[in-house]
Amino acid sequence: MSNKIRLGILGGGGDSLIGVLHRIASSMHDKYQIVGGVFNPVWEENIGFAEKISLPTNRIYKDFDTLVEEELKLPVEERMQIVSILTPNFLHFPMAKKLLENGFNVICEKPMTTTYEEAKILNATLKKSKTIFAITYTYTGYPMVRQMREMILNGELGNIQRVDAQYYQGWINPVIHDKEQRANTWRLDPKKGGISCCIGDIGTHAFDMLEYVSGLKIESILADLNYLYPDNKMDIDGTVLLRCSNDVRGVICTSQIATGEENSFIVKIYGDKAGLKWEQENPNFLYLMEDGQPLRVLKPGHSYNSQLSLDGSKLPPGHPEGIFDSMGNIYKGIAKAINNEPYNHGEFPTIIDGVRGMGFIEKAVESHQKGNVWVEIENVD
């Protein structure tokens, strides 16, 4: 029998980008074997997709509850060890909770749940189950993001004095201006997407990234969100002012109506000695900025990088790595945790990142609804 980690997948069938991303990522380091799942709620499409990607169909189940029921009948050494949840947002919580209660490890897409209260319940459930839970804030897997984190942790920027994240997309433009389309898009439906679209989808990436690389905690925020049309119930654009630990200030600017933008995620951290800047659309370049010095560009795979960065580099210098590699690095870190191998706590985002992300979403909406006031973000452990 294979010694690979037995992986099940929920959602991500058909032409789902996120499904392709997770399947390729799980295969990168030869740590996982996909053994089954539920790719689509329509049985014909579910089983047809499994056949299309050459999976045995004996563990393709008609629905999630059947998956759990049937997998628990199998011997421990045969059943799924971990399940990836790639479904629409409203299904994340019930699926993750039931999986944890039944002893499965979980990988969950973000946002982790649709409410902060659900996120806290999941955290309490995880503590009882003593399994592994990871949330896929994908960009933390990039080698140069990890290099950024380690340089800041080692004090190379000095005292951090400002943090800044900008995440601009334009994908929702064709949808938002058409009344019928915006009424029938699940991401703009609070029953399926939660209380936020833009902040919930990409703002949480920015929030988690700033805390991940800087080592700071965002303690309070002031948000100004944009809904564009009176009948649109979820934000599609927003600016959030930040007050962080150590009296550091910052800002998160997010938009899904930034016309012409594709996936422009830019992170900047400024210390009293130097600054660092990273751009997702050019992920192999980390810019080091110092007063009175020429701009320096750090790239992956070189010996001057940290061990955490080098562990996430699969190719020699000069060979580009991208988002599949980034997600692959997260899956690699999760595999180490499942196999009880030593790992750096920066190798994959945990449930705490997910809980804090949900707290950020709710507080951003609350701040906006109260007239753009400062609100505090609860700390969790």
UniProtKB/TrEMBL annotation:
Top-level taxon of the source organism: Bacteria
For this protein, what is any one GO molecular function term? nucleotide binding
All copies of the GFO/IDH/MocA-like oxidoreductase domain together span 145-276
Positions of the Gfo/Idh/MocA-like oxidoreductase N-terminal domain: 6-135
Which Gene3D superfamilies does the record cross-reference, listed alphabetically?
Answer: Dihydrodipicolinate Reductase, domain 2 (3.30.360.10), NAD(P)-binding Rossmann-like Domain (3.40.50.720)
PANTHER family in the record, alphabetically?
A: CONSERVED EXPRESSED OXIDOREDUCTASE (EUROFUNG), OXIDOREDUCTASE
Protein name per the record = Predicted dehydrogenase
